[in-house]
């Protein structure tokens, strides 16, 4: 397993050891590229979480602001209204036995870069903060994660979501991401977030064109040098559209294939819109590499 097979999250709870973990995406947004608007109402978002749990998710990742290229920023109060009721209701079920589930109900993550949203979601029962900014867009988020010590997804991005795809450039993309992780890991640990709470996301599609994304995927083992598990978010993303000429709704098969390959190569956490095909793909990968 690249970087380790378990992850400590809020309250000292440990996810794993496991061959893989699936994080089901809940977009409580009107404008996300794949399913924007379908789960904007809190009841719809909760229903989506229950469906993803039934499909085999280990984590439910709730977000209230789209981070697709060009997406508009959502004010703090608006994001709180979208996210907190959903987190609270799903977290109230988390860890319980639920009819129809093979195991217990998944843990809840919040996908945000805002300190106020992260703090409110953690108070409402989230155990993980998935942050596209590495605590750079809202520096107060560093204090929140250092004090509350949730599981934390440290993601690489070049630029902000609205402009990140304008003209991304790197020397060597993997070297540059590794240097970024070195610097941000040191900042987080120095602030007081234990290293065992952190997983690393190379940020597929965040300030990267096709050649950058493929270079990251081809060299994924290089990130094992940090000793931290990897968290991959490549579900239905534009690299599959560029590579294969597919629209957002046509990329499920490419996502499942990529998920299987990354499971076989030791990536721990896989963030996906559709859990059922990802779970099948991951199980096939494990059976063929056992």
Could you characterize the architecture of this molecule?
The protein is α/β, with parallel strands linked by helices and 290 residues long. The chain has a single domain, classed as Dihydropteroate synthase-like (TIM Barrel, Alpha-Beta Barrel). Helix content is 39%, strand content 14%. It is built from nine helices and ten strands. The strands form two sheets. The protein has an eight-stranded parallel beta sheet with strand order 8-7-6-5-4-3-10-9. Strands 1-2 form a two-stranded antiparallel ribbon. Strand 5, helix 3 and strand 6 (128-131) form a beta-alpha-beta unit. Helix 1 crosses helix 2 (76-93) and helix 8 packs parallel to helix 9. It is globular, with a radius of gyration of 17 Å. The two termini are 13 Å apart. This is Dihydropteroate synthase. It is an enzyme of class 2 (transferase). Its cofactor is Mg(2+). Keywords: Folate biosynthesis, Magnesium, Metal-binding, Transferase. GO terms for molecular function: dihydropteroate synthase activity; metal ion binding.
